[in-house]
Amino acid sequence: MSFDATYHDQIYKSVGTRPVRPDGVDKVTGRARYGADFNMPGQLVGRILRSPHAHARIVSIDTARAEALKGVKAVVTAADLPDLSDGDQSHYDLLDNCMARTKAFYDGHAVAAVAAIDAQTARKALKLIEVDYEVLPHVVDVDEAVQPSAPVLHDTIFTGGVEPKPTTPSNVAARAEFGHGDVDAGFEDADFIVERSFKTEQTHQGYIEPHACVASVNPDGTAELWVCTQGHFVYRQKCAELLGMDVSKLRVTSSEIGGGFGGKTHVWMEPVALALSRKAGRPVKLVMSRDEVFRASGPTSATSVDVKIGARQDGRITAASAELRYSCGPYADIWAELGAMTSFACYDLENVNTVGYEVLVNRPKTAAYRAPSAPMAAFAVESAIDELAQKLGIDPVAFRIKNAAREGTRSSYGPVYGPIGIGPTLEAAQTHAHMQAPLGPNQGRGMACGFWFNFGGQTCTDLNVNSDGTVTLAVGTVDVGGARASLSLVAAEELGIPYETVKTVVADTATLGYNDMTDGSRGTFSSSMATISSARNAIEVMRNRAALMWDISIEDVVWEDGQAKAIGSTHDNLAPLSIKEIAEASGKTGGPIAGHSEMVADGAGVSFATHICDVEVDPETGGTKILRYTVIQDAGKAVHPDYVEGQYQGGAAQGIGWALNEEYVYGQDGRLQNPGFLDYRIPVCSDLPMIDTQILEIPNPNHPYGVRGVGETSIVPPLAAIANAVSNAVGVRMTHIPMSPPRILAALDAQPTA
Amino acid sequence: MQYERPGTLQDASRLLVETQGTAFILAGGTDLLVRSKSDDFEADLVVDIKSVDGLEDVRETAAGFTIGAAVSCAELGAHAELKAAWPGVVEAANLIGSAQIQSRCTIAGNLCNASPAADSVPALVAAGARAVVTGPDGTRTIPVEDVPVAPGETSLGKAEIIAAIELDKRPPRSGDAYLRFIPRTEMDIAVVGAGVNLTLDEAGTVKSARVALGAVAPTVVLVDEAADAIVGTKLEDAALEKLAELCSAACRPIDDKRGTVDFRKKVAGVLARRAARIAYDRAGGA
Ligand SMILES: Cc1cc2nc3c(=O)[nH]c(=O)nc-3n(C[C@H](O)[C@H](O)[C@H](O)COP(=O)(O)OP(=O)(O)OC[C@H]3O[C@@H](n4cnc5c(N)ncnc54)[C@H](O)[C@@H]3O)c2cc1C
Fold this sequence. Notes:
The structure holds two protein chains of two kinds.
Chain A: H1 24-29, E1 44-50, E2 56-62, H2 64-68, E3 72-76, H3 89-98, E4 103-104, E5 110-116, H4 119-128, E6 130-135, H5 142-145, E7 172-180, H6 183-189, E8 192-200, E9 212-217, E10 223-227, H7 232-243, E11 250-254, H8 270-280, E12 284-287, H9 290-296, E13 303-311, E14 317-327, H10 335-342, E15 352-359, H11 374-392, H12 396-403, H13 422-431, H14 433-436, E16 443-452, E17 457-465, E18 471-475, H15 483-495, E19 502-506, H16 523-550, E20 557-560, E21 563-566, E22 577-578, H17 579-584, H18 586-589, E23 593-601, E24 607-617, E25 624-634, H19 641-660, E26 691-696, H20 718-730, E27 736-737, H21 741-749
Parallel strand pairs in A: 1-12, 8-27, 10-11, 14-15, 18-19, 25-26
Antiparallel strand pairs in A: 1-5, 2-4, 2-6, 3-5, 7-15, 8-13, 9-10, 9-12, 13-14, 16-24, 17-18, 17-23, 20-21, 21-22, 24-25
Chain B: E1 2-4, H1 9-18, E2 23-26, H2 32-36, E3 45-48, E4 58-60, E5 64-68, H3 73-77, H4 80-85, H5 87-93, H6 99-102, H7 107-112, H8 120-126, E6 130-135, E7 138-143, E8 148-150, E9 153-154, E10 161-168, E11 174-181, E12 192-200, E13 206-214, E14 221-222, H9 224-230, H10 237-250, H11 261-282
Parallel strand pairs in B: 1-3, 2-3
Antiparallel strand pairs in B: 4-5, 5-10, 6-7, 6-10, 8-9, 11-12, 12-13, 13-14
Bound molecules: flavin-adenine dinucleotide (FAD).
Flavin-adenine dinucleotide binds near residues 24, 31, 96 and 187 of chain B.
């Protein structure tokens, strides 16, 4: 059935309300099942042996003593995960990251794994595996890695995207360029130019639940995987490819998820768990420790960015350029490219140019982290914009409004924008009470804007009308932020029935068609679109059944307020048929009632936010306190406003941690010094003020309710907003994130005393 | 691993003397249980001292206070007399971890864990606290600063147990204070800690003082010269500046994941100055 996804203004009954989430009680009573809560009879304990070296050739691995230990049921190395990549570099890289093949590329890189009858035996077995390493020189810093003198990770990688093709291998895996106009001419036109370099350190998503799974491979080659993931269909695909299985033979069930933020979009030790189970012939549970999560899952890039922006005295930006270097860990990816695309996306620019460089370093493989790559680019750009506004003597909000992108603007990364929210978020900031609040000594205010693309993608849902008229909705996007509540609201809205009568579940990979994962802020956007489509299809079925029950033509049946109504002068004496009545009769009118939907949910509207932040800095210790924080963001339509606000607040909270204290600290030996929450400092509750939110609703024309993704954009402005606030508080421009107390104090001490 | 919960100090000591393997004393366990989760941790015997007779309370005597080694830091916070006499010691103990941690952890455990960053230790050293050490050869009383000798190492013998921490009775016009710097608001390890204890004369001049710093050297640093700099003063600006300078100079810190050498030196002076001010106010100085 054709589906009309265009936006239509309407009055909502369910959408926009704030009912209790269906998974809430289980979560607060501890009954919810997370990754490590699955158990199988006869299950073994898996453990992974990891490289203590940042860069080393694996000369040999001797597993004989471990295998001989009583209670050990399997030991695997790269030899048990044959290379089936057939020239597909990303397949090979993923496999190599799961289990190092010839070299260990970072401290924590998996080199072998065991499955044993208990944790103690598994631990002993790890100590009995002998790995002979040839330690190689390493490089962890993104700026050092691009130097010609740096140790090269792969002698097979030559910088892509440059002509002619280089002849010497390099840690710069690729170059990507975006923009339009003539920046040189634009800078000629400028009255003022700001040019600065910025750095951000590597951070981890910091999800509370470590990676965990149970893998069970049967003798007939079928397998099951219970796993904490943001996308079980994607995990199924990747695991099947890496292990050479038919997709249909692997059934993946996603658990409840204690946070992902992008870190659970890649497979890490799941293929290893399957390989262990395949070898041992028994189910294997693998749960990462926090130390392993930090060392061997996927943090975000460390970056180094040079920005140049010029403007005329009248406040119009004449040209903007940026060069961005993003660390990828040992494998090439598109992190710098995303940074280069997003850097200037908020602005309407005649002349703009950005160049991104993907840099390979001896750190864990970079993974997505909430609007991946955008926060660091925004930090550099929004800091420079702030400084430029100061030079021009223009209010920073007014300066941004003057240059903001609008409908019809050609974005710096190519496409022309439709209706967008950057202008309205800035105008809301300008009139927000926060902007006018007084500041005390050592206090400063900063603001910044942020952009994220958002994504739609492949989506499939099943909506079943049960015999009592209640509804079960099966979706394939993992619920990471309250999506089950939102999708129940959408189904209730479309069907005209109460929220309480809809139950949404996340189906496993064997019972629903393929779904892309919950990333790109797509969960509610795409699954709500497919839910609306499913509901409309179910309504069609119910209109048909009502027509049958009344023995009238379907054209004379409409669906209103959760019931079928007969229309036209000949039928208006017929009492409406409720969903319950139609469902109860379904056995006699054609069988079960369902609505199915499969689609590529196109048209995820781009998203913008503006944040305002007040800080107080202790000039004697460099300690920063966040006094007040306001998030203003366009949601298109807030389906469940609580969870929209939750996303806004969560992104701001993570951004605050990143801006002030979170960072990967490496020693001279290339080993991670702080793989734990004691010294990797995410904010605790008392570090944060109540984060204020303002939801704007500028409808996305490509969604029936106008919904836009909201999950990611909220982490884009904080680094810059806080850096601008700190810089304003101390009178020194802060250019290195995190702005930890030692960095702030050092920056203050470097100032000439008045 | 063998777990024992003896009822007397003698039994505890005997268990420790008799064991052939690696043994640990367990008080609140907030350090030990965390360590025991590490793959490298091996223990043959754990002696839990929480049921040992006489270690479970705070006694006020003519000489001062005797704090049993099993008393939790939360209980110290609830002890009105102790808090009134030694607010700096109690506030240091009540900075450790969180409410959950404080309901288990002890100041003797904090001391014996021998972390350079232990929060209660600089406050105890500034207060001139003593450790009552019981072992196979009897009991001895030593200044608390003599317990830690290096990070993770103490001067205690194999079968020695700290039975109690002693604090003196307070002369009039006395005050103490402890401040630490952490990048967050709680649940963090001190990057620098400073404890100051002082007594004033009737005119409000500092008569005696002790200043101790944490996390700026392998063990707690008692800075006599900084204390001397404020004796005979009313903490005028110049005296406080001198105190800060001498504290900064007394630091022998390292660069690590928690802070830099420069940062620690500078902030040690800042905190000592601020703690001295608070102690002075608590002592009733104007
Ligand atoms: C989440 C968390 C937060 C923390 N925050 C802080 C903090 O803010 N500041 C801080 O300083 N510390 C902190 N700690 C560390 C710890 O809580 C303290 O060091 C605490 O005081 C230890 O006391 P305990 O009784 O729990 O010691 P235990 O863990 O029981 O013992 C510690 C060590 O001392 C030995 N020991 C204990 N009692 C005796 C005794 N009577 N005689 C001889 N040896 C003994 C043990 O054998 C062991 O080696 C934190 C720990 C955690 C888990």
